[in-house]
Every structure is written in C-alpha cells, then in structure tokens.
Amino acid sequence: MNKDNLALYKPTHQQYQYPDSVQIPAHLTDASNAVDGLKSDLEVWGGQCVISAGYQRTATWWVNLGSILSIHNITIYYRTGNTDWGPSNGYTSRFLGFSLYVSNTTDKSNGILCFKDTNFTLSTIPPVFNTTCIVHGQYVIYYNERKAGVTYPDGYSQYAFNELCEVEVLGCRELGYYGLNCSIPCIDPNCRYCDSENGRCQGCKPGYQGHHCELECPKGSYGQNCVNKCSDKCYDCNNVNGSCDSGCSEGWTGPGCEEPCVSGKFGEDCKSICGKCLVKDDCFHRNGTCLNGCSRGYQGSLCKTPCDPGKYGYRCNDTCGQCRDKGMCFHTNGSCLSSCDTGYYGDLCKTVNIALNKPTYQEYRYTGLSVNLTQASNAVDGLKSNLSVWGGQCVISDINQQTATWWVNLTSILSIQHITIYYRTDNANWGPSNTPESYTSRFLGFSLYVSNTTNKSEGTMCFKDSKFNLSTILAVLKIPCPVTGQYVIYYNERLQGVTYPDEYSTYAFNELCEVEVFGCPEPGQYGPDCSLSCPDSHCRQCHSETGTCQECKPGYQGDQCQEACANGKYGYECQEICGHCRNQTCNHVNGACSDGCDPGYSGENCDMKCPKGNYGDDCIEKCGYCTDLTQCHHISGTCLDGCEAGYKEEYCTQPCDIGTYGQRCEKTCGYCLNEEHCFHINGTCLNGCDPGYIGNLCKTPCHNGTYGQNCKDTCGHCLNSGDCYHVNGTCVKGCEAGYQGNLCQTSPYSTVLFH
C-alpha cells in the first residue's frame, strides 16, 4: 500500500469564507477547493484555492479525513496569485505565522500541534510547504491569527487569512499498517494505529490498553481507550464493543442490554411470559409484576394465581354464590361449575329469596287455632304447597279488624329486585267463586312497602292495589320493587267511614302463605345475578337494576358518594358530629381524631371527658386537692366546688399561706413553737407550742395555775390566789403577802433567816 493523499475530496470547512458576489461567486472561494487535487492555477479566478474574508483576526480551515488515520506528512500549496513569490508578493505576508494541528475533533486544542511558524520571513517562507507529522488523527487544522493588541514580526499581514490552494495529507489509508508503502502490519497485534515509519503503537484497538496494547479493558469498561462503561444491566460486557456476551440482567435484552423485554415478556433472557394482567401483556419487564393489577379471576403480583376457592372476579373481591353442595365457581366470572343450591337462581346462584326464615311480625294473629298454624313466620318458611289454614304454611290474622299489618325483617339493608306473594286460597279455585269466605276479596286493596324501620310511612311504597277486582287479582303476584331496605311490610285496611269497592271484604286480613323477596344477599351488589359491585366506590347500596347509588357508605355524601363528609361531620349520611378533636378535624368515616384531642377530652373520637382526677392535654395533668374530684374541670383543672382543707387558689395545688390553714385557708395558726408554720390542713403545730399554750393547735392557754413550756410550771403566790400570766408565770396583780418578785415565789423572811 502506497502512502496516499488522505485529504483528497474529503469534507472541509473554513471559518470566514469570502462573501459570495456576482464578481466572485462562492465556488471560487469554497473550502473544498483545497482538497480537489488541483494546484495549477493559484489565483482566485482559477477556482482552485480557498479564499477567506478580509479584515478578520483569526483564520481557521480544516479537512475531515473521515476516520482516525495514520499521517506521515502534510504539504500546503499557498495562494501566489500566479506571480513571483517572496517579499514582493502581497500574499506572502498572509502565510507567515500559521499553525498546523492534527486532532480527533474540530477543536485544535484537543489535538497535536504539528507545526507552528515562528522563524519564516517574507524571504524564507516557501509557497509550497511540507512538514513531517507522524501522528494519527481525523482532522487536519490550519490556523492563523492577527489578534488586536499583539505585536507581530515585521512582514506579517495586518489581518489573518487562510488562502490555501491545496492541502495534501499523506499517510496510510487503512489502520494498523506502517512502512514506506503502508504494507507492514503494526508490531503489536491489538494496535489500532502505529508510527508510520517505525511501527511503534500510537493507539490501541477498541477494548485494549497498555504500552503494547496487551491488556484488555478492565471489567466494566470497553471501547476506545477503555473509557466507555458497560451497561449496569449487563452481566459482563465485551471489552471491544460493549455487547453483553454473558447475557443481560432480568428484564433487559439487546446487544448492550439497553432494551427492555418486549411487551408480554419479562425476566432472564426475556423468556418468561406475563400473567393475566388487567392491561394485556402490561407487566414489569424485570420481575413480571402486573403494573395495573390483574384481570378478573387472578391474584398475586404476577397475576398467575387463580382466585382462592370461593372467590372470583376483579382483585378476587367477589364471593362465589350458593353453588350446589358448596361447589366452586369459575374464578373469572363467578358462574357455578355445578348448579345452584335450593332457593338460589341465576348463573352466579346469587339471586336469592332474602326473606327466607327471617324474623317476622303480624299485627293481629288469629288466636282460635294453635300458633304453628297461624304464626307470622309461616310466610317465610319456604313452603307453599298447602295454601289452607290446616297446612300450617300460611299466616292467619284475626277477624273483625280494620287494619292488617305483617312484616319481615331482612336483618340488614339490602337491594331488592322483586317480591312475590302467595295468598291463601284454601286450595280452592281462585277468583269470585273461591270459597264462601271469599279469600280473594280479602286480598284486594293491599299495599306493599319497603322501609329501613317497621314504620311503613318512613319507607317506599312499592305497590298499592287500586285496580284489581275479584276476577283480575292473582293468587300469586310478582311485584317489581327495585329499592333498598330492611323491612318488607304488607298492609291492608278496611277503615270505618271509608267506602270501598263492592267486591272488597268487610274487614282487613293478611293471610299470606309465602312472601318471597328476591334481591342481593350482600350490601353493595346489583344486577340480575347480583354479580356487579355498585359502580361508585363509596356506595353502600345501589339500585338493583341500574346500579345508581341510593345510599352512601358512612363518611360519604353526594349523588355518587364522591364527597367526604364536610369538616366537623362523619358517619352515616354525615349526620354525626365530630368530637373535641384537635384542629377540629376527625376521620370522616368513623370520627377518629387522628391529630389527638382538645385539652380535656380523651377516647379515639375525643368524645369523653378526662377521667376523674385528670385534665388538660391528653388528660395527663393531675387535678389538685379538690373537695370533689368529679368537680375538677376537665379542661382547665379548676376545682369547681373548692379545695380540700389546707389548699388555696382555683387549682387547689398550693398549700395555705404561712400562718393559715384549713378550709379555704380561713383559719389562723395557733402559737406554734418558735413561730413555726402549722400544718396547712388541720393547723397542728408539728413541733409543739410556744410557752404558755397547749393542745394540737396550740391555741389553748395554760390554766389551773400553770404556765410556760407545755404548761409544766406552777404559778407562784399570786394575789388573791389568782392565776399567773400563762406565758412567763408573772403574777399580773401582784403577790400575796409575804412573797415578792415577778413570779411571787420568793419570801423576804427566808432572806432574813438566811442572814
């Protein structure tokens, strides 16, 4: 391989091209003219030279060799204007001071300076310049400058130019070779490019490093100069191209493990298949977790596990119906794999007589027969084969009554679809000729209500007979009643003073042999088979056919139960008032005070005053010595009925002031020893009395002729046998005859006798 002109016809660029004009079109000055292989006409009109704009401080031109190649030498043919070169040529001064760089980018500062003119003059610079530059690179950059404020040698032009007529870059066209003809492979096998003369490696192939490119990139890096980091999704990447030859971590694929598994796949090598995700194939590419949950009938993070036995549907939240012999239902749609248990209907076996064996009541039971033949519960026993009184399957009400009421308690508020009534026929033909008693006439005019209480006026009227007659009323009536309620109430009346149609019986009866109430056995369901959950998430009861919400769960309100109770309210229909919650905010469902209670209150709902003896924040403060602890104010701790003896102030925590004691600290201490304070509760002087006083309170003066400490001293011979001063024994009124001194204990005769 001969050394080729690597720059020939390669992409070029110049910083400031001479402006396009009619006189000098752009093609005569284009940057590519310097790599067109033409150098026979070195003036502007020949169209073989690059011509830069005038009056510029810098001039840059480069050629892109297309890839990093080994370069040996560079030759420049400068514009001469086809005249003699030298001091007399006006273009010579523009060539002086130029630089040549080889770089892997268009930024010369990232490259190698091959040549910088610092010595040439107008007389010595050649018009054809050649320099050896044994380096490798992709861009050969010509640069010159005439910066303001910088002093340049004499002969330099005032402004910078790049008037290049040809730039030849000679080197090896293929990497990895050197020598005169580029025919010798580089000495080191992993060398990408080497010195074009001696073969010494100047750059390793991607994936290798070291002086002789003998070392692979360290683990975790790859590529040219080992600067690229392997993907963190790679088990171990190829040192050359970064491909993950040992495979990808879970959930990733592609040569560089940068692509997640395709839709529907996950895990190691993307071999695992997503489960039954709610959005098909929408599982997390790493571990298979279904991002939006499972489709109906499946559970678990992978949505591969069918619902547990007895459960089905979305999130496995639905409970199987009454399948025969406690059989299982299909986990996706709830259909019973066998048939239904007795009394249940529909694909889901959830359409049920919700009145069966429920509590009942009748207003006036017929007492002429045994209870089992006439009792109210006969209408919900599931039996309707014998519709006479003797079958024990019918309710029999008393005679000669103006009203007749019967009800069944469904035990909770449920969604009702329809109600079927089997009336007493006495097992005879129904109609005008039924029996002499004409049970048909007793059925006429009845009403049917559904209520949440036993009071029909508080409920909904499902049906009121105003059109039937003896010929048209049926013994078995199916009445649509898509409402919710707990009590189904049958009512009939024959009131005095009211005119009824001719065919009506004289008195009111409720002779019901069976009342079947069909609906959903669990709250929050609707649909033909009660298979649907009420669409509004906070709905407690919805219309059995349409799903329109009819009653909200506790804590919610609005047409669709979309609104939480207003601040300060909670519970069913938001009728409950929050307790004494701190920040006046309670849980809208159960009234719990999440931020705690106001001072003086306790309990989850902060609806209880502090227990006896406590008050204040969290009820941790202890009441003082109140007369009655039940009268310690639960908020402030004030003793409403006053303090126990010995304490003062409204909180009864401070003992009486010094010198006082007792109830309301109204009593004054006695003469305690050394003026000590008496006990604040009962006034006792704990260390005894001052001289002259006795008793627990030290308020009783010495008497009976005593005085002093503990009244142990005896008075002297006071005048008229009077008592002495109880403190120091002084005889206040003087001494008896024959005695002298304050204490009247000294006889003058004793002194004389002594002398």
Brief summary of the model shown:
With 755 residues, the chain is mainly β.
Question: What this model shows, in words?
Answer:
With 755 residues, the protein is mainly beta. Among the domains are: 170 residues, Galactose-binding domain-like (Jelly Rolls), CATH 2.60.120; 54 residues, no CATH class; 170 residues, Galactose-binding domain-like (Jelly Rolls), CATH 2.60.120; 45 residues, no CATH class. The protein is built from four helices and 52 strands. Strands 24, 25, 26, 27, 28, 29, 30, 31 and 32 form a nine-stranded antiparallel β-sheet that branches. Strands 1, 2, 3, 4, 5, 6 and 7 form a seven-stranded antiparallel β-sheet that branches. A two-stranded antiparallel sheet has the order 8-9. A hairpin with a 5-residue loop joins strand 24 and strand 25. It is flat. The C terminus is likely disordered.
